[in-house]
Amino acid sequence: MTSTSTALSTTLVHPATGDGPWWRDAVVYQVYPRSFADSDGDGMGDLPGITAHLPHLAALGVDAVWISPFYPSPQHDAGYDVADYCDIEPTFGTLDDADTLLAEAKRLGLRVLVDLVPNHTSWDHAWFRAALAAGPGSPERARYIFREGKGPDGGEPPNNWLSTFGGTAWTRVTEPDGTPGQWYLHLFDDSQPDLDWTNPEVHAEFAAILRFWLDRGVDGFRIDVAHGMVKADGLPDTVTVHENLDPTHHLGPMWDQEGVHEIYREWRRILNGYDGERAMVAEAWVADPRRMARYVRPDEVHQSFNFGFLTALWDANAQRTAITDSLLAMDDVGATTTWVLSNHDVVRHASRLGLAVPGTFGPGIGADDPQPDQALGLRRARAASLMMLALPGSAYVYQGEELGLPEHTTLDDDERQDPVWERTGHTQKGRDGCRVPLPWSADAPAYGFSPTGASWLTQPEVFGELAADRQVGVPGSTFELYREALALRRELGLGGGSLAWADDLCDDTTLAFVNGDVLVVTNLGSAPMAVPGGFEVLASSVDASAAEVPAEATVWFRPAARA
Ligand code: NOJ
Questions:
Q1: For all residues of the chain together, what is the average pLDDT?
Q2: Domains of the chain (ranges, CATH numbers)
């Protein structure tokens, strides 16, 4: 067989890395526990529900599962407000259920990452309750960021920082003697007080939490708000109001501070003390890939989500730049690049890509907003996913994207639970639309999500035709597209492979690269594009022949076998 790379004029960006630790080329599936599968019928997903459906994930062909928080929590931010890091929220199950889940995953050959939320606790955490009771100047308060207010009676917040969810980032407490007192910092909801990572007690506590889960057998951690745990000395005002709010360019004195790296070095030393290639992935919204690369230096975390790729619009040049820049930056520090298109915080890509300006996302979509073109969104989502799964590195898949699920864009406002909705005075819809419970079977109540038909958010009607049982084993379905791509990716070693742009095929509407013997072409334009002779189709997001790539589609080619 002729090597594809010699048949086309190419520019190498990233050389093959071959085999390495599992996480370097892993495809990781994100499970959002409350919406994955409900075993007991209360309308809220749970750990036994996850365990029961792990075979679906093994059949899909992913390598690992990342489970969003399942810890005891008042659920003001869907579990990202943790009241106890070493137990399970009763609605989700018990520690025994967690052990069963880990054992079943192991049996099926799936690794498990759990979510660690170290920037803040819940206001129901024992530490925060003790801090409120103990009063100003106490060691209990020193675990959080309490400050005196400004103004003659301390009635103004200590600085001008805003909460990512809307409104001020400070809340004033009532002291034990009943007087208005200090303020505490919360970069998110007021139910999520920020910890003070300059306090050694906080370090010791999280080291113990890491060990608790590592000892239980988890393969690693996804680290929430990994770029926000350390704040600039003196908590200086932000210069511009939106400095800390633009989700794609988190800048300012609360983000990406030098001190966070010492925490990751400390945690890396802990993970290195365990066998089994345990790993960490950082949720660090850092726009500059070179800044992001600093999180994945050899003695820090193993991976960082590539939000530059997620936020690149449906634009060949923007995507090419995002891919090239992230590969070069990660290669510089010897790290693997990650690819991600959807998660529980952003509009699902099957809807995002069907918007008038495809790829944009922001405050969520409601019934009174312009609606995405669902068919076009799905067609583009399939193309984007097939392209992503051919890229070298590791990929993250958000539950339901393997079914091509759209965002719920007409959810009733009364159902919204994301704190963003209330904190922005109902000006931002928030993230509930991407968190709707999964459809497992078209004809069952709640599309098979729960045995009783209860569902904590109403599912849109289109979930019926997209249910898993309508797709598994059905040629051409989105599920089968993912399954086929994952199998080929594994068989051909694409995750540990190379990336070279196919120069003659790339233009303003085409992305074309070679990984090993595979030529991957994504046509982002609205007309078919011709492909040189000598190739045959290996996989495609729509029906395709060897002669051309249809509009809004991705095709994987390999050199045609000689007659
Ligand atoms: C990032 C999580 O992904 C998001 O869901 C959460 O609201 C914030 N961090 C705060 O924990």
A1: 95
A2: 1-16+498-563 (2.60.40), 19-119+199-470 (3.20.20.80), 126-185 (3.90.400.10)
